[in-house]
Amino acid sequence: xxxxxxxxxxxxxxxxxxxxxxxxxxxxxxxxxxxxxxxxxxxxxxxxxxxxxxxxxxxxxxxxxxxxxxxxxxxxxxxxxxxxxxxxxxxxxxxxxxxxxxxxxxxxxxxxxxxxxxxxxxxxxxxxxxxxxxxxxxxxxxxxxxxxxxxxxxxxxxxxxxxxxxxxxxxxxxxxxxxxxxxxxxxxxxxxxxxxxxxxxxxxxxxxxxxxxxxxxxxxxxxxxxxxxxxxxxxxxxxxxxxxxxxxxxxxxxxxxxxxxxxxxxxxxxxxxxxxxxxxxxxxxxxxxxxxxxxxxxxxxxxxxxxxxxxxxxxxxxxxxxxxxxxxxxxxxxxxxxxxxxxxxxxxxxxxxxxxxxxxxxxxxxxxxxxxxxxxxxxxxxxxxxxxxxxxxxxxxxxxxxxxxxxxxxxxxxxxxxxxxxxxxxxxxxxxxxxxxxxxxxxxxxxxxxxxxxxxxxxxxxxxxxxxxxxxxxxxxxxxxxxxxxxxxxxxxxxxxxxxxxxxxxxxxxxxxxxxxxxxxxxxxxxxxxxxxxxxxxxxxxxxxxxxxxxxxxxxxxxxxxxxxxxxxxxxxxxxxxxxxxxxxxxxxxxxxxxxxxxxxxxxxxxxxxxxxxxxxxxxxxxxxxxxxxxxxxxxxxxxxxxxxxxxxxxxxxxxxxxxxxxxxxxxxxxxxxxxxxxxxxxxxxxxxxxxxxxxxxxxxxxxxxxxxxxxxxxxxxxxxxxxxxxxxxxxxxxxxxxxxxxxxxxxxxxxxxxxxxxxxxxxxxxxxxxxxxxxxxxxxxxxxxxxxxxxxxxxxxxxxxxxxxxxxxxxxxxxxxxxxxxxxxxxxxxxxxxxxxxxxxxxxxxxxxxxxxxxxxxxxxxxxxxxxxxxxxxxxxxxxxxxxxxxxxxxxxxxxxxxxxxxxxxxxxxxxxxxxxxxxxxxxxxxxxxxxxxxxxxxxxxxxxxxxxxxxxxxxxxxxxxxxxxxxxxxxxxxxxxxxxxxxxxxx
Length: 989
Description:
seven-stranded mixed beta sheet
């Protein structure tokens, strides 16, 4: 269904103004198709990108890589790698230029120089200067053209506290120098005053998140405190200097907390009367109209106007992809027409409330500007309360036409080095070359009626990932009500601490001769619960109960078993907040990671339910006169030995895989995480697993674990834990016991010595963040955690410096605090073992960083060693703690050799923008899970099935299409269906 946006009284005026503006922008213009051969290379690149989608993608990827390339031969070889791709149809001029045999050759050097210069020229079109001196020159030129300005400082992502402090200091310096320069500027009435009021000549635009490196909506209070301290300094200095400050809006995740912080801050007595401050609304967001209404209500209460800048929004691709990956509702409109229509709605809303708000309408679409002017003129909006804005280099002709018509125009001028500015450049290029871009359509001489037509909004569907399995959505802590619910869950769980949890044998909770306290590793004086440990005699009772239950469970239809699993998944979703809290408190996992673990447990239930139904169909290999059926049956009794580091997800995954396959299952969890598995037990029983089919048997690994592994009635052993224990289980399971009539199947995941390679073309912003998350998330206690980083020589020192600063900026503390990124390790044994490794590391390498840690729990601050030998103990042995070895290598070949030079092959990562390196890593990096240009932890069921080889494990990948096969025996059944030479033949009459 198509809904025509309601044509309002403003439409006729909008059309009249738009036609005048459009005529002014189209004067003396020639379209590039007729002049392509005479054009400069920067214009040619843009023209080609518009006409060839394949080239557009590869060209922009090359431009993204360019700042990391430090020689002409590197530029030439990357040009060939990106643009020589088979998917790219090259224009003849570009094809000729790339036809060189060697990047070091003269033609290679010429190609590098030509394209490098063209990209630099392109960047200078959109970036107003590389330093303050150049910026002052730019704004003085703009002022001569009667245009006001706002300056935005481009920079690398703020990932360290040093960078956040530097961001503040650079803005203080920028304001100082601009105000100093402005003393020599003559007053230009069109932009420096309105309605008898002076307007600040200097305005800067800032990003709120850049004032604190660990900015996170989950830690709303901590983020607000840290950010607000720096903003107050900025606003005070701006007042002293007479400069205006505008706050940009960034990604959707930060929107609510950004608005909340600014509203609170600007109601403080010191700032309440300030009118030289602005905020931003993005019209491509579905909730932006509501946000605007809320802001206007707040401004009425405040009593003093502020500027609201209205823009379409610059992160559409990013927001769309993130929502699809996270299974969250899509925050942006799919359809550009819907954003345009919403932009017009909000424009009207702002201008109709001009007594409370100064409107700044930012667009390059002639219709959008004309609409704003039509409304402003119809309502007689005072000049002070309305201005139009464009981005530097984007709407030059529109801006000039608007100035000529007597409107105040402000140009948004980003400035900074071209290297960190490249991300900004690519956003502008995407905008300029998109099919739906007004600028592009205007260049292509589309009919005026089409260019200026009111936006038509279609009913739209959210984009969903192209996958048959849709996982559970993690909690979005950007929502305030969700954070409140999480806080409430902590209160509820705390009232249940210290309870006793008994084993479940044959459907009954049974008393035990021995109990163990499970402690909170963040505060070991706090008992989470008392857990009953079974004896060997009780283990035997459990085994007999399983044997008795097996025949009935084996005959239970697969669909019925699958539905019990789905119910378990639904119960976990209902208890998500509570389960997260148990994980946080019992094993010291920070809140967000605990929530992700609950999602994984739910996914295992739902994915394996789907999988057993698929496998239950079997396969037919029929031929005339004979049926051949390939089917599966359960193996028997499964013993699951689960770890403490993913106490819910891994315990659940191994257990429900065994159960849904028709096996009776005994779950023996790690002692330190037995309360969480008791909670899993409650859920599985509530879901409907019959007695004897699932049993919860906590006990000592050396006694009960060994007894169950060696038991002649055990058919399958599913284990996750250390290599030492895994190898012992594998060896013991191979020994045939008296009365045993089958070979045991062992599935063992035994850890890794995981490496991330960072090559010289890597995006260091991305690489540093990814390495910090991979190495220090959950204090390095994930099987998939990075414990080695292998860095190529040209960038080694710069990488280590930023890595150290980023790690220094992490918050270390109790796992339940929303600010915590690094919590405790699991217990005293782990802490002492990690400390021993740190001492070994000090004897083998240089300490680049050793952070202090709190005393009251089992804490160890992150440690980074640099100049580490690939063969050092800390490079070879699994430490399972927040200890990272940074290894220097000469080239990519050596990096791969070092990465593969351990006994493990679990996870690995590569940060690179060199296509040949990415290709080579895919074939030669020996790991079960390889992650390219992202962190190496957090595998998702049905998306990144998880597991390794070499001494990292044996068996197929968890959460993948082969996993259930390990719990099943395949059978082939053949029947001759001929009778006296007769059999039905399909297709015959």
